[in-house]
Design goal:
The protein has about 550 residues and is of the alpha+beta class. About 55% of the residues lie in helices and about 15% in strands. The chain is elongated, with a radius of gyration of 37 Å.
């Protein structure tokens, strides 16, 4: 109940909990002596324990269903049920004994080979997976403190994959931004200009995040993927404005006027170049269906970030370049730099010249420039050879593309292997549990821990969620993949540990159980083979061979 009270939780299914049953053990000798049969005993108990609706009550515009409480409340009531001819005075207690015991299990759950009770938590359709999982962990910790004798272990959570994916994408965005700034610093050889360009990166992302929030786009794998895709594009506009301003200033135009003229000069090309990107990603916003679920957030992220970078490059970037207070000192223009120092134009030019002549960055820039110029001269001097290399490169690219495996969507590795065990129909649940124990032992041998197993039938909630109903001959295992181990390699080693089961009874799915895993990575998991023949026996024989 505590878990069901968490916001965003729709229901909690209890799996593998032992169920009580009332067992009636009849005395065959007494039944024969009284001329009764076991069927008479079961009929008498069933008739005395009816359940069902007893009519309706109308009150105004409402109608209430009435249900009579005629079921047994205690086992002793069963002993007083009359049996046999009316007025014979024979009761159940005269021919049978009543005992309360545990019913034969239809479902067994285990954790690392030990009996356990599973709780499968289902969230509401509109609830946030990460938020629900965070509240669920907090509730589990609180329950663990309230009931120290009970061990509560979270076996698998959809949010783990989501959090890991978001964390990795966030790291890629940071690493990509830092590398972009380093390259800008190497080629521009001006740390102040590079810093001004670098400011565009976080500001563009900030503006994009605000716009995405207004459009009800969450921070998810796809929206962050769009931000990561746009990181390399965010600084392009700022670089063009900075380079054009520096070129104008080197021609002798004052800095403020050079910045204004350069910005006006490059505004048209920058707008046109940005619009080409927006026209590529923009129309995807209007797509419906599966494509919308996959690409809408990504497209919105790219459109907002690139659009924000254009606006900032044409408005804020010129201010950062030319935003210095100036005054005349003895016929020379004295400027106040960003660090508060005052210097004349001559001192500025001298400092720039000194900076251009020395330093590791200047050396690297000169080396790259020299290499580029040599390559351009060689290419212009050998056009037939360059044309031939281009054709060969294009042909090789097409050949490599044709050799790549094809699928609709990429596979997803969530560090969890889902093993399905299907034994021969009619196998007892005890035998299925024994084979599951072998599979658990093989998984532990390759380093897996926290193995959750469900043997037998699924609960109603699991069936409604899309799970296979199962039987006494089926089982499902959630096997965590050890850190640092390739999931495919782990699955192969697991199959090798139980070679007899791997010949047809065991199926391992590496796509995981998360919402993203259910959308991506499922293609190719199921192969459907249809066999047709003239007779049923012949078709059955061919199906067995397949």
């Amino acid at each position: 109940r505590r878990l069901e009270q968490i916001g965003g939780v729709a229901s909690v299914a209890v799996v593998g909990a032992p169920e009580d049953e009332i067992r009636v053990e009849a005395d065959p000798a007494r039944l024969r002596a009284l001329g009764l049969t076991p069927n008479d005993l079961s009929t008498a108990i069933r008739s005395a324990n009816p359940t069902g609706a007893s009519g309706t009550i109308r009150r105004g515009q409402f109608r209430f269903a009435v249900r009579t409480l005629t079921e047994f409340r205690t086992p002793d009531e069963i002993l007083e049920v009359p049996i046999g001819p009316v007025g014979g005075g024979i009761r159940v207690k005269d021919v049978a004994k009543i005992s309360v015991t545990t019913a034969d299990p239809k479902t067994l759950t285990r954790l690392d080979g030990k009996r356990a009770v599973g709780l499968v938590v289902y969230k509401d359709a509109g609830a946030n997976t990460v938020a629900v999982t965070r509240d669920l962990r907090a509730t589990i910790d609180a329950l663990g403190k309230e009931f120290p004798a009970v061990t509560l272990t979270m076996v698998a959570a959809q949010a783990d994959f989501v959090v890991d994916a978001l964390s990795n994408l966030g790291q890629e965005i940071i690493v990509g931004g830092v590398m972009s700034l380093l390259l800008i610093l190497i080629f521009l050889r001006n740390w102040r200009m590079s810093l001004a360009i670098g400011i565009m990166l976080p500001l563009s992302i900030l503006v994009a995040l605000v716009l995405l929030q207004q459009m009800d786009v969450t921070v998810n794998v796809l929206s962050l993927g769009g931000l990561a895709l746009g990181v390399g594009l965010l600084v392009d506009n700022a670089i063009v404005v900075a380079e054009a301003s520096a070129r104008r200033h080197e021609e002798g135009v004052p800095l403020v006027r050079a910045t204004i003229e350069a910005t006006e000069e490059v505004t048209g090309p920058l707008v046109a170049g940005t619009l080409t990107t927006l026209l590529v990603f923009g129309p995807i916003i209007f797509v419906r269906g599966l494509a919308a679920a996959l690409f809408r957030d990504l497209s919105l992220s790219v459109v907002t970030t690139v659009g924000a970078s254009l606006i900032l490059a044409l408005t804020l970037m010129p201010v950062l370049i030319a935003g210095r207070r100036k005054r005349q000192v003895g016929g020379e223009t004295e400027s106040e730099t960003a660090d508060g120092r005052r210097q004349t134009a001559g001192e500025t030019e001298k400092e720039t010249a000194n900076g251009a002549r020395g330093g590791v960055l200047t050396a690297w820039g000169d080396a790259f420039t020299h290499l580029y110029e040599r390559g351009m001269r060689w290419s212009l001097a050998n056009p037939p050879l360059v044309f031939g290399i281009t054709i060969l490169g294009t042909a090789f690219t097409v050949w490599v593309t044709m050799q790549l495996p094809r699928e609709i969507l990429p596979a997803v590795n969530e560090r969890v292997a889902v093993a399905q065990l299907h034994l021969a129909e009619g196998t007892a649940i005890e035998e299925t549990a024994r084979q599951v124990g072998r599979l658990e032992e093989a998984a532990r041998a390759v380093g897996s821990r926290g193995i959750y197993s469900r043997v037998g039938t699924a609960t109603d909630e699991e069936v409604l969620a899309g799970a296979d109903p199962g039987s006494s001959a089926t089982a499902q295992l959630l096997v965590p993949v050890p850190e640092g181990t390739n999931a495919t390699t782990f699955a192969d080693r697991l199959r090798a540990g139980v070679p007899d089961l791997s010949k047809g009874a065991l199926a391992i799915d590496l796509a995981g159980q998360s919402e993203f895993g259910s959308l991506i990575g499922r293609e190719g998991r199921t192969v459907r083979v249809e066999v047709s023949a003239r007779t049923l026996d012949e078709a059955s024989r061919w199906a067995d061979s397949v």
